[in-house]
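Continuing the batch. This is chain 6 of the set; chains 1 through 5 are on the previous pages. Same settings as before, nothing changed between runs. Recording input and output for traceability.
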Amino acid sequence: MIVVGFGSADEHAAAMAPLREALAPLFEVRTPIPYVGLQQMLDEAEPWGIHAYAKGLYLDAMPDEVVDTLAERPAFECGKYVQRPW
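Output for chain 6:
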């Protein structure tokens, strides 16, 4: 899961706190990054010519309902469902 915040570091930490508590990350990287750098980070997962798309959304907060939904849904990666480690 990649979570991108466009507010302050404190706002991002507050929004992420419920998610971190519900789903302990295997690892975490927090760093400022240009938007183009973020897009390039995902290039290997979406090679040129793949006929697919991804969906996303913007949230002002990370309420319990969002965390619960993320925890219940199967992960989807590169055109196939993957088993979560928990």
